Amino acid sequence: MFETEKSTASAWFRQLRDEIVAAFEALEDSHHVGPFSDAAGGRFEVKETRRQSEDGSDAGGGLMSVMRGGRVFEKVGVNVSTVYGTLGERAQQAMAARKGIPGMADDPRFWASGISLVAHMQNPHVPAVHMNTRMFWTPHAWWFGGGSDLNPCIEYPEDTAHFHATQKAHLDPHGPGHYPRLKEWADEYFYIPHRKRARGVGGIFMDDYCTGDWQADFALTQDIGRAFLPAFLPLVEKRRVQPFTEADKDTQLVHRGLYAEYNLVYDRGTKFGLETGHDPDAVLMSLPPLAKWV
Q: Could you read off the pLDDT of 63-100 as tens digits, one per residue?
């Protein structure tokens, strides 16, 4: 049961990965004016990731695609994975929102597939961004999760408005209540308690999402993914040509420190990936290449 749904979801995440990688390399190729335009266009380095169970048996894996030092992207990672096996107690506690699922202690099998993306930009006027969508299955429950959020160090209100409006347009066909609920969810999830502030300007997010209708929930998850490129690419194209100062770059590095703090201290995906033995380089690819604390 659910083998068809699993393979369908896994194939979709891989398709979305391919579309995003192609779009990001096209941005590199088209950057002919403005800062860094005289540099070589960036390309993704692709590496297969493998995961093993404690007994050495195959436990899945994926693709880690990272671009470093491009014209537009200082560092961007786009990862996909499909992993499976059994969940230890610590891994169960590190799971997204679902803990204490009835039956998990007796049958702790799991399967998970998803895409995860984080982009840190050369030009501080171009916002950093994060996106992920995923499906999780156990013999006792299944659910979807994910979203995307914008993380500018120099905020432009019109960019924030475009990012949110594009996401709303993709969610509204699924019901008018989805966007406000997922926006509020993102505002709560991407809040940094010890700094008493959000890490960016928000977006949409959901976790432990299961209405019982797999097709409908998968369709919503797909549209969260489809919203990403039209929400983000126009902002990159508009801001990548702007000149910037050393003070602007300093502002960016300090903001990246905030991003690193969140991902290392609070992010559930980071905790779950490390607890389930996934490739640590893939799990931590979200960290910026350079950051600063003052």
A: 999 999 999 999 999 999 999 888 776 666 655 455 56
Among the options 120, 130, 178, 278, which is catalytic? Answer: 130
Backbone region of residue 212 per phi and psi (left: phi > 0; alpha: psi in -120 to 50; beta: other values)? left
Return the percentage of the chain with pLDDT > 70, whole number: 91
- In terms of Cβ atoms closer than 10 Å to its own Cβ (0-12, 13-18, 19+), residue 8 is middle
What is the residue whose two structure tokens read 């950051």? 291
pLDDT value of position 201: 97
How far is the C-alpha of 49 from the C-alpha of 114, rounded, in Å?
A: 14
SS3 breakdown of the chain: % helix, strand, coil, rounded to 5?
Answer: 40, 25, 30
Averaged pLDDT for residues 240-251:
98
Q: Answer yes or no: are the C-beta atoms of 286 and 247 closer than 8 Å.
A: no
Catalytic, 194? Answer: no
Provide the whole-model pTM. 0.92
Q: Give the CA distances from residue 143 to residues 39, 172, 219, 279, in Å, rounded to whole numbers and listed in that order.
A: 43, 21, 13, 23
Per-residue confidence at 59, pLDDT binned at 50, 70, 90?
A: confident
Instruction: Show the CA angle centred on residue 94, arms to residues 274 and 179, nearest 5°.
Output: 105
Q: Are 54 and 9 in contact (CB under 8 A)?
A: no
Please give the angle made by the CA atoms of 45, 50 and 52, to the nearest 5 degrees: 160
